[in-house]
Design goal:
Blueprint lengths: L3 H16 L9 E4 L5 E7 L1 H12 L2 H4 L1 E6 L3 H7 L11 H7 L4 H17 L8 H13 L2 H5 L23 E7 L6 H4 L19 H15 L1 E6 L3 E6 L6 H14 L6 H5 L7 E5 L2
Length: 282
């Protein structure tokens, strides 16, 4: 087991030396989950948090720590993760289980569940109107059909993330021992809670699904876990898709994952081609 005090001291000292942040050893909050997973973190002003996150992200190979940004301190994050239900009680065992399926298979399963949910009232089709509705929903989730409607290049400029939350309140730069950010939903499931997502029959979007989807995007597009606060998730994307076909595929996946974003054409002409992806679930 790593020494929590030594990690806290290292985080504070390195952040002072290389990032010119006024972080004392005592500013580093340390909390350990019920399953023994440690979080270390310290408050950072909004203007400095992105650069600090990038600096520590680029040193993961040396530190073994994955940084992420949140509105909650490590202590509150651990407290929020307590309780029952599928969106609490993260563990290394849950992570190991979540890493077993192929990410692309999980993405395909979620897509099929969403399609079944959308067409449910039209199956079996009773008339030509039902058959048209089914066909329209199938086209909505068809990357080939979506690609035909997209512009040659994304219409929206690459956005900068708006500062999450109240700018007068610092954000927390938090660290957890992990291989990559996509593992976080299994270690602390309430970082992303999506109880309103539904597939058919009774398919939910569970912590293991978040791991698979985020791993899929990490491997394919270099998407990194940047910020989460339960209802919101922000990713930083190193290699976003650029061609209409590539953007359409990513847009359909994003729509399935987070329908609140709007239809795949809107996503494909917008954030799918951006270096920053934001998701929110009402």
């Amino acid at each position: 087991m790593r020494d929590h005090a030594a990690i806290a001291a290292m985080l504070a000292e390195e952040s002072r030396r290389h990032l010119q942040l006024s972080v004392r050893d005592t500013d580093v909050d340390v909390a350990v989950s019920a399953s023994g997973i440690a979080l270390h973190g310290f408050p950072v002003e909004h203007a400095a948090v992105r650069h600090a996150w990038e600096w520590w992200r680029d040193r993961h190979d040396r530190s073994g720590l994955v940084p992420f940004v949140s509105r909650r301190s490590p202590t509150l994050t651990v407290e929020y993760d307590r309780g029952g239900g599928p969106w609490s009680g993260g563990s290394r065992e849950l992570l190991a289980s979540a890493l077993r399926p192929l990410p692309a298979d999980v993405v395909a399963e979620l897509k099929a569940a969403r399609l079944r949910e959308m067409i449910d009232i039209h199956v079996p089709p009773r008339d030509e109107a039902d058959r048209r509705e089914i066909a329209e929903y199938e086209l909505l989730l068809s990357p080939e059909a979506v690609a035909a409607e997209l512009s040659a290049a994304p219409r929206e400029p690459t956005p900068a993330f708006p500062a999450p939350g109240n700018e007068r309140e610092p954000l927390w730069l938090t660290f957890v021992e992990a291989q990559a950010g996509y593992e976080l939903p299994a270690l602390f499931p309430r970082l992303i809670s999506t109880p309103n997502w539904s597939g058919h029959p009774d398919r939910e979007l569970l912590p293991a699904d978040h791991v698979a989807v985020l791993r899929h995007w990490h491997e394919r597009y270099g998407a990194e876990f940047f910020f989460a606060d339960s209802a919101n998730l922000h990713l930083v994307v190193a290699r976003p898709p650029r061609t209409p076909g590539e953007r359409a595929e990513a847009a359909v996946e994003q729509y399935v994952y987070c329908p609140d974003l709007g239809d795949p054409e809107l996503i494909g002409n917008g954030q799918a081609g951006s270096t920053e992806w934001a998701f929110w679930w009402d």
